[in-house]
Amino acid sequence: MVEGRGTVAGGAGTAERWTALVGRLRDEAETLVAAFVSRVRAIPPYGRGVVPTERLETDAELTFEYLLRRLAGSSVPARLAGIGPSIGRDRARRGVPLNDLLTAVRLDFRVLWEALRARAEPTDEPMLVAHVEDVWSVVEEYTAQIQVSYQVEAALLARERQGERTMLVAALLSTEDPDPDDVARVALALGVDVHDNLLVAAASPTAGRALRRAADRLGADGRTAHVQSTGRHSVLIARWDGGLGAPVRAALAGVPCGVGPLAHGLADVPRSARLAGEIVDVLPDATAPCEPRDAWLPLAGGRLADTAPELVDSVLGGLATAPAGERERLLETVRAYAASGAVGDVAARLYCHRNTVLNRLRRFAELTGRDVTVPAEAATVLLALECVRQRPATPT
Q1: Model-level pTM?
Q2: Checking phi first, is residue 51 left (phi over 0); if not, alpha (psi -120 to 50) or beta?
Q3: How many CB atoms neighbour CB 167 within 10 A?
């Protein structure tokens, strides 16, 4: 009987016979260990040698001694009391998947039951039937101990690894020219190859949660995805097999973020992350992922820094002589023309005649000396207007 359970049908003689049968298995523990190790090698991680044979044999020997003491109703010494939790922690550290571990532990029941049947007499059949639930219960209780300790250890390891990833990725993002050894350590922590293509995106802190949800979706698809907070931005780094454009917009749907150029290897990630962060900064009202091709003009305006006021004054300064209302109409027309390049489209958009559009464009050229129907002139005007958008206090 199992300690704590009542005696089974058959009386004292049956109990003595059961104890003797279990005791015989304890004397033949080497046979049980060999049978278990042979079977467990059929489970992939064990077959690959994730757990060394010596460790497997030692753990199996202690396991069967523990289980057989429980089945005999004997006391369990202190040296055996922690064997289940110890196995759970060890397998978590070795990276054995939990389902594979539980499959291995439940082999104990099969090994024990087959050994009991092989050594029982035909007249022992009723006794075996009476004890099958006891054997299963003891193994399941033992399995539960292992599972709990595995899950606790796995959670601790996950926190440690997350902390290590965060530290290593922070160091990577803070450098212009990462050291190859540091890149290799980051690759190991993230579970990617140093030469993998990587998607890099940055979002403002307020959009960080949406970026993490996108990372979770990528992770659910089997991609490596890590989100790092830099204080100013949340940065996503994900292994990426596709190109930019539609696949990226689908993966980051609903996330207002900047997307850097595809990083061809981890060493390219810092530059890509910086550009993605710049896109976020110059397009704070974005509602969807923005790639560099969507943001070259804002990026150029943002990088002009101290020279922006001089650019605005030299290109748009002539508008200061026009009344405020006229100035607004001229700027509205120029922006609309730059967006389409077609006078008819601008007239329809602004609800005015084509001649009105042409007259406004000529008037803008008279005041500024810039003809926006000439591409080179239009590019300069658009850059000046972008500087105005980013610095609304500019006098024009």
Answers
A1: 0.58
A2: beta
A3: 13
In this structure, the strands spanning 289-290 and 257-259 are: parallel
Q: Domain 181-293 maps to which CATH number in 1.10.10, 3.30.70, 3.40.50, 3.30.1890?
A: 3.30.70
Angle in degrees, 0-180, between the axes of helices 269-282 and 296-303, rounded to the nearest 10: 90
Structure tokens at 251: 């993966």
> For residue 273, what is the enclosing H or E element?
helix 269-282
* Residue 119 CA neighbour count, 13 Å, CB half: 20
| Bridge partner residues of 142 (DSSP) | none
CA dihedral (96, 100, 105, 111) positive or negative: negative
Kindly report, residue by residue over 367-381, the tens digit of the pLDDT: 989 898 888 888 888
In tens, the pLDDT along 330-376 reads 999 988 888 888 888 988 898 999 999 899 999 998 898 989 888 88
Residues in contact with 30: Cβ distance below 8 Å, sequence separation at least 6, in sequence order: 61
Which amino acid, residue 101? L
Cα dist. 258→179, 228, 354, 393 in Å?
A: 26, 14, 38, 25
Which amino acid, one-letter code, is at 155?
Answer: A
pLDDT at 378 (0 to 100):
86
> For domain 11-157, which architecture applies?
Orthogonal Bundle (1.10)
Token digits of residue 97: 């998947």
Identical fold, 181-293 and 304-390: no
Domain map (residue ranges) of the chain: 11-157, 181-293, 304-390
**What whole-number distance in Å separates Cα of residue 236 and Cα of residue 273?**
9
* Angle subtended at Cα 82 by Cα 79 and Cα 84, rounded to the nearest 5 degrees: 125
DSSP lists the bridge partners of residue 356 as none
- Which CATH fold topology does 304-390 show? Arc Repressor Mutant, subunit A (1.10.10)
Return the beta strands (E) in the chain as ranges: 197-203, 225-229, 234-239, 257-259, 263-264, 289-290
Neighbours of 220 (CB within 10 A): 9
